[in-house]
Amino acid sequence: MSIAENLRxxxxxxxxxxxxxxxSKYQPVESLRQAYDAGQRLFGExxxxxxxxxxxxxxxxxEWHFIGTLQTNKVKLIAPFVHTxxxxxxxxxxxxxxxxxxxxxxxxxxxxxxxxxxESTKHGLTPEECQALLRIFRAEEYPSVRIxxxxxxxxxxxxxxxxxxxFRFLRTLxxxxxxxxxxxxxxxxxxSMGMSHDYPIALExxxxxxxIGTAIFAAPxxxxxxxx
Length: 228
Ligand SMILES: *Cc1c(COP(=O)(O)O)cnc(C)c1O
What we know:
By secondary structure, the protein is of the alpha/beta class. It contains 9 helices and 8 strands. It has an 8-stranded parallel sheet with strand order 7-6-5-4-3-2-1-8.
């Protein structure tokens, strides 16, 4: 199946108001260009250097989303152009994003990443940490960032009920935080959840942004696939 065909089938499946972010990590620039030529404009990457390299080689009307773990010393690589950072997990990181965005006279949209999955390898804030961060956060002290919502990765499991519970929990947290910290603030409205294998569940549970890689680009190339 071609990239264009994969995109066409996904778009037919996804409501217009939901953003489809093509996760292009490890993919060669040619694959991103094929997706671009098929009309895709939102791309997600999880490494700062790779994102900066690809951004320089592709058209300027792409909206770039950063979805991976971000070290504070790498923020400057993506600050000149990144649209949304999905993986904010500390006030310290938020401060650095604000500082770098300010240098470039830009506004960078961010999402707070929650850790709700079973696997300890996954990153993000616990619900308690997230609440504590929002309590301390003063928007006027961070004029160059804007918190647009929450992000999570569900557990990697075949247990669809568990996945559904995690997505539903993110939605519940989102509603609580909106009431407590963002009343009448319309930009706090995004739930970034759902990947290739679980996006239908995420849609049912209220996702506004899907991050989909494999179902668009097929599996990233690995050495085991190269015939010897
Ligand atoms: C790789 C990745 C995705 C996409 O995963 P697929 O299973 O390839 O769709 C989504 N979100 C994050 C944070 C990722 O690292």
